[in-house]
Amino acid sequence: MISDKVRPHHLQRKAILYVRQSSAHQVLHNRESSALQYAMQDRLTALGWSEVEVIDDDLGRSAAGGVQRAGFERMVAEVCLGKVGAVCAREVSRFARNSRDWQQLIEMCRVVDTVLIDQETIYAPRHGNDRLLLGLKGSLNEYELDLLRQRSLSARYEKARRGELVVAAPVGFVKAGNRYEKEPDRRVQEAIKLVFDKVEELGSARQALCWLHEYNLDLPVKQTNGDTAWRRPSYSAIHRIIENPVYGGAYAYGKTAVAAGYSARGVSVKIRRKARNEWLALKPNTHEGYVSWERFEAIRTMVSSNVPTGRHHGAPKHGDALLAGLIRCKRCGRKLTLRYSGMKHYIPRYSCSRAWMDNGGPHCIGFGGLRVDDAIEEALLGVVGPGAIAAATAAAKEARERRDQVRDALSRDLEAARYAADRAFRQYDATDPANRLVAGELEARWNRALAHAAEVEGRIAMHDAATPAAIADPASLGVLASNLKTVWEAPTTDARLKKRIVRTLIHEVVADIDDVASEIVLIVHWVGGVHSEIRLPKRRRGQRNSTSGNIIEAVRRLVLIASDDLIAGLLNRNGLKTGNGNRWTRERVTSMRSNYRIPVFKPAEDGIEPWLNLSNAAKLLKIAPKTLRLAAEAGELEAFHPLSDGPWIFARASLITTAAQSIAERARQNPRYPTGSHPDQQTLFSSTT
Questions:
Q1: I need a labelling partner for 577 at 20 to 30 A (CA). Which of 82, 108, 274, 560 fits?
Q2: What pLDDT sits at residue 84?
């Protein structure tokens, strides 16, 4: 019987049968549901439609609104064009399970007068009662889907909280019921352990990646079908291993969340990683891991701290600056930026320029890094010095006991390559030689396996041929440890190793500049909780390589009695160097005097020198030089002694005072006092004292 809701103008247009199932599993296994939906063509024919179009483009797609449905959109477009008299589905829930798509379909059908048909009845959206019924059914369909989803998710989450929901096992593990078990392949196990060992040893995931690439070592990856394959290591593969708690023996669930996004291309799904405190479950020590949970957490925290943010210091780099990422401005709290200057770009400079770079604000502080790093080195060596010998001995023992990790990894690769070659040979040997189509392919596989095994053998031979670094004996290690400063300053010592030692002992350094005292103020926050303050004079640009102030003051005194050539000899005799670490020459003394505007020594035209050395002053007083020196050392007579191994300088005016005359008179009256030489006695050498 034809319903009175179906009019002739409906029959003049075509009818659309919409067929949909929610998942690929239903499409493959729920065949009866598909047959019942396709059978709705008979109902449309019985109602009078001669042209029936079946739209089944959305098989395996959900109608909840999270995915794009090309078939539904084509059906709505056909309805909008007025070409459709009826849209049909076995249940109206097949059309949509969300209000947006459902209301859009009903409204379009109402505008162009298209009826909706299911297995029970016919709905005319232009009738108020039918439109109300369709709205209720759409709401119930949406609610039903949400209710089913909530029930299934609640059961899933409850199982996850118990640690029994194992969806998939990462590489290195297999799924054994409701728990993880290690991969039985020993080669896979050792490769994953090697990743954790190298990341912990080298301090960063990138350095571990470079080490694996240097020795051409592969890492296992799990394919979509569950098999394990070996690939060249990548940065993301190493990060997935050291960030996954499963490798630390912990069960974790709910680490990611699905976020739906909408764009011109339609609905897109993005995976967002959640913070650890938002995970649904994290249960340590639920199965055997590749490392202990404590070691896993320590490695993960170390790698996370390698990101240079406001909270973390960043990974140690190749630069010579010790405090990169560790030093913070006291005035604004931002980290100081580092740049290298100089002709060879090796002179570090710390400056607080984040406000200027980010917001165009003013610079806070800035200072050269050489003196600061030297002060930190001195403080650090003073802390680690007492335990240096014990640490060196322990390191040597550990180096002797440490396995050759590269040799072990290559041996496992060789074992796997030989097994693959033997397996290929057995397959080739079992085939009929007359069947060349099969035998030729198996022979090619056997040859490739043999070539790979030979390649691995060659890599092992090259590794064994390399001469290992000799390990120092305990006695020499004790000598090096006792002179830790020499080892630290050696050109062969890696800057990254120095920075790792600094980061092990120092949590942070807060820097400021005392403008009144012209000093750099450093507050060192040690890891143990102790704070110490270091104050350094703030130098002008280029002042580090300038001459020391003590040398300049000594030259100011020496020019009173000595020429530039003689001053250079005196400075060298006292072991003093120029600002660049060179020996003194007459030209360098002249240049230094000119730079600091120190007058040159000029003998008096009348022969009466206003300044005298020790010999000439003693000769003037007619006493022994030793007597005059002892009096000067006792402070009885004013004199200058600028260098420890250098001349005494006396002013002629101070030698004619009452104090000088009383010293000379006392020396002449004391028979035990040394007497001077005869004033007319000549010497073979000119005296500088």
A1: 560
A2: 92
d(CA 274, CA 279): 7
Would you say residue 422 has pLDDT above 70? Answer: yes
Angstrom distance (rounded) from CA 237 to CA 209 = 10
Contact 606, 599 (CB under 8 A): no
- First CA to last CA across the chain, in angstroms? 137
Q: Which pair of structure tokens corresponds to residue 77?
A: 């477009």
DSSP string, 287-347: S--SS-HHHHHHHHHHHHTTS-SSS------SSS-TTTTTEEETTT-PBPEEEEETTTT-E
Q: What is the value of pTM for the model shown?
A: 0.52
Task: For the chain, give percent helix, strand, coil, nearest 5.
Answer: 50, 15, 35
Express each pLDDT in 307-339 by its tens digit.
665 555 566 666 777 787 788 888 777 788 888
DSSP state of 191: H
Q: What is the mean pLDDT of residues 432-439?
A: 79
- Residue 375, classed as helix, strand or coil, is helix
411 in active site: no
List the structure tokens of 13: 């247009």
**What's the confidence (pLDDT) of residue 321?**
78
Q: Which amino acid would we find at residue 476?
A: S
What pLDDT, on a 0 to 100 scale, did the predictor assign at position 1?
A: 47
pLDDT in tens, 528-564: 777 888 888 876 655 556 778 888 888 998 998 889 9
Tell me, what amino acid is at 479?
Answer: V
Give the pLDDT confidence score for residue 493 in this predicted structure: 74
Closest CA to 636 of 623, 672, 553: 623
- What is the phi/psi pair of residue 529, to 5°? 100, -5
229: which residues sit within 8 A by CB, 6+ positions away?
Answer: 220, 221, 222, 223
CA 399 from centre of chain = 26
| 474 HSE (CA, 13 A, CB side) | 6
For residue 479, pLDDT beyond 60: no
Provide the Cα torsion 383, 385, 387, 392; round to 10°.
130
Higher-confidence position of 284 and 368: 284
Lowest mean pLDDT of 259-263, 329-333, 411-415, 664-668, name the range.
Answer: 259-263
Cα–Cα–Cα angle for 146, 152, 157, nearest 5°? 120
Residue 474 confidence (pLDDT): 53
Q: What does the DSSP 8-state code read for residue 402?
A: S
Cα distances (angstroms) measured from residue 681 to each of 186, 421, 622, 685: 96, 102, 12, 12
Q: What CA–CA distances, in Å, run from 225 to 221, 222, 229, 566?
A: 11, 8, 11, 87
pLDDT by residue (tens digit) across 179-222? 888 988 888 999 999 999 888 877 788 888 888 888 888 999 98
Question: What's 580-628 look like in SS3?
Answer: CCCCCCHHHHHHHHHHHCCCCCCCCCCCCCCEEEHHHHHHHHCCCHHHH
Q: Considering 22, 204, 305, 615, which one is annotated as catalytic?
A: 22
- pLDDT value at residue 247: 93
Identify the pLDDT of residue 685.
Answer: 47
The span from the CA of 616 to the CA of 38, in Å, is: 127
CA-closest candidate to residue 526, choices 491, 544, 502: 502
Distance from C-alpha of 534 to C-alpha of 333, rounded to nearest angstrom = 19
Strand, coil or helix: what is 507? strand
The identity of residue 617, as a single letter, is: A
CA distance 251 to 179: 9
Yes or no: say if 496 and 320 are a contact pair by the CB < 8 Å rule.
no
What is the three-state SS of 519-574?
EEEEEEEECCCCEEEEEEECCCCCHHHCCCHHHHHHHHHHCCCCCHHHHHHHHHHC
